[in-house]
Design a protein that fits this description.
Keywords: Repeat. The protein is mostly helical and 190 residues long.
Length: 190
């Protein structure tokens, strides 16, 4: 599949590996791909992010992701669904943090860090982003996968990353509108 990636898309994947190394993570996660995209300049993906007002707002994205990690990786939609069942996630987080310290529910456990691994494996979420980016490119009848397709894939993946991006006005539809002048249709991304 990587032979279909543009130079910019390859740079994002390589940047995600570096982001993972810097974070001391054992695997490359989807969020590392997002951070690599946020660090890019002069590409279609970076143009879309700048046009949608997300360029230079990495701190805000990091805060949104940190808050979700504090909830054990649950999105607000998950927390709302549990609330409907009478389960108060905020209360559970407070009690766990009282007993075990702030951040006890964080799911992003760091490994040994450094460069001890020759190749960092990609976690399932990151692999899913790569697969979804291929589907998006094919649905748009595009021959190559660019960093814009990686960005679009991040916006449609279920979970916290898409929620944080949407909180910042970055959705599949908004990216498609900026890049293609249309709404793009999420159905095309599935």
């Amino acid at each position: 599949m990587f032979e279909r990636f543009t130079k910019d898309a390859r740079a994002v994947v390589e940047g995600a590996v570096l982001q993972s190394e810097r974070a001391g993570a054992d695997t490359v996660e989807a969020e590392h791909m997002l951070f690599a995209l946020l660090d890019r300049e002069g590409s279609r993906g970076s143009f879309a992010l700048a046009s949608l007002g997300l360029a230079g707002r990495r701190d805000s994205v990091e805060r949104g992701l940190a808050e979700a990690r504090r909830r054990g990786g649950l999105s607000r939609a998950d927390a709302d669904a549990l609330s409907g069942l009478g389960i108060d996630v905020s209360e559970i987080v407070s009690r766990v943090e009282e007993a075990h310290g702030v951040g006890a529910l964080e799911s992003g456990r760091k490994g040994g860090g450094g460069r001890w691994l020759r190749r960092r494996p990609f976690a399932q979420g990151a692999k899913d982003v790569l697969t979804r980016s291929l589907r998006i490119a094919l649905a748009r009848r595009e021959r190559h996968i660019g960093d814009e397709h990686l960005l679009m894939a991040l916006t449609v993946m279920p979970g916290v990353l898409a929620e944080v991006l949407a909180d910042h006005g970055v959705t599949y539809e908004s990216v498609a509108r900026v890049l293609y002048g249309d709404g793009g249709g999420v159905a095309a991304a599935g």
